[in-house]
Amino acid sequence: MDESPDRPGGARDRRRRPGRPRSEAAERAILEAVLELLGRGVPYGALSMEQVAGRAGVGKATVYRRWANKESLVVDAITTLWTECPSPDLTDGRSTRDHITEYLDTMADLMRSDRAGLVFTSVMATATTNPELVHRYQQVAIEPRREQLRDILRHGMATGELRSDLDLELIVRMLASPIVQMAKTECLGEPLPEGFVERLVDAALRGIAG
Questions:
Q1: Bridge partners (DSSP) listed for residue 187
Q2: CATH superfamily of 96-206
Q3: Domain boundaries defined on the chain
Q4: pTM of the predicted structure, to 2 decimals
Q5: 6-42, pLDDT tens digit by residue?
Q6: Rounded to an integer, what distance in angstroms lies between the CA atom of residue 138 and that of residue 121?
Q7: Which of 46, 128, 138, 203 to pair with 175, CA 20 to 30 A apart?
């Protein structure tokens, strides 16, 4: 039998077959390259697939095989940032107040991080010129995080800690918006004022507690 390395099925071909790990490594490198470039202050409008490929150390064709356009690539890259906000364990016996506070603390830490902050700013700056990007960012990256907060509130309603007639969408915005405002316009990368999250949660609970 011909076991020539160059023959299909030969030794060299078999060595190439385990391509999945290499493919996953390339994908991680591409997503990381997007975050690095945006985090270094490259505006979304100036970002190119060629830049991303160069930063990731892959060919441009490798990028285009996975993402048809820059918008999809950037949304996927940004989504990886939010994996740092794990779903709360609502069965751990802690109070709804504790769960809300932990959620908002984690959100604040992410929002004021240098990379996430610059990426968020870069995307939001395109709101008037590329509203579809912002919409996709909201749906893919932000909406799942809002659902986590809704789950906490629903749990509190079910346990009787919160009123049963809450307007969930309004409460989610009441709790999350001050964190974004403080992290991106007042604190500018610095920690939020000590006790700010706790005071925010307590002020909200005075109106929504069961």
A1: none
A2: Tetracycline Repressor, domain 2 (1.10.357.10)
A3: 22-70, 96-206
A4: 0.73
A5: 444 444 443 444 444 468 899 999 999 999 998 888 8
A6: 13
A7: 128
